[in-house]
């Protein structure tokens, strides 16, 4: 499995979903993230980070609530937002960084 630091250094946008198993809104995001991937295909990588299993990453990026989304490209954090987002919103945000 690739390291987080390697994954976020891609030339295409990487959407990171910081989530928790016990989080209701996080579960609501699963079909939305699938739709985003269906729309954008290879133009984006989407990875999910379980904050309970990856506490050091959650601390490093100061994730206080879940879900928290971040877009990285070439190792730089370009955007972040917490809470539920709709497919259209996420697609537009990712396209900005493509």
Automatic annotation (TrEMBL):
Gene3D superfamilies in UniProt: Glutaredoxin (3.40.30.10)
Protein name: Thioredoxin
Record domain Thioredoxin: where: 1-98
UniProt keyword terms in alphabetical order: Disulfide bond, Electron transport, Redox-active center, Transport
Pfam families documented for this protein: Thioredoxin
SUPFAM superfamilies, alphabetized: Thioredoxin-like
Recorded family membership: Belongs to the thioredoxin family.
Keyword Transport attached: yes
InterPro entries: Thioredoxin, Thioredoxin-like_sf, Thioredoxin_CS, Thioredoxin_domain
NCBIfam families (UniProt xref): thioredoxin (TIGR01068)
């Amino acid at each position: 499995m690739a390291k987080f630091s390697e994954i976020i250094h891609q030339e295409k946008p990487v959407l990171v979903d910081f989530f928790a198993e016990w989080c209701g809104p996080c579960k609501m995001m699963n079909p939305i993230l699938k739709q985003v991937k269906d729309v954008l295909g290879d133009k984006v990588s989407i990875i999910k980070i379980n904050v309970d299993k990856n506490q050091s990453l959650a601390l490093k990026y100061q994730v206080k609530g879940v879900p928290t989304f971040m877009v990285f490209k070439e190792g730089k954090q370009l955007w972040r937002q917490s809470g539920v987002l709709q497919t259209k919103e996420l697609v537009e945000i990712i396209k900005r960084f493509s």
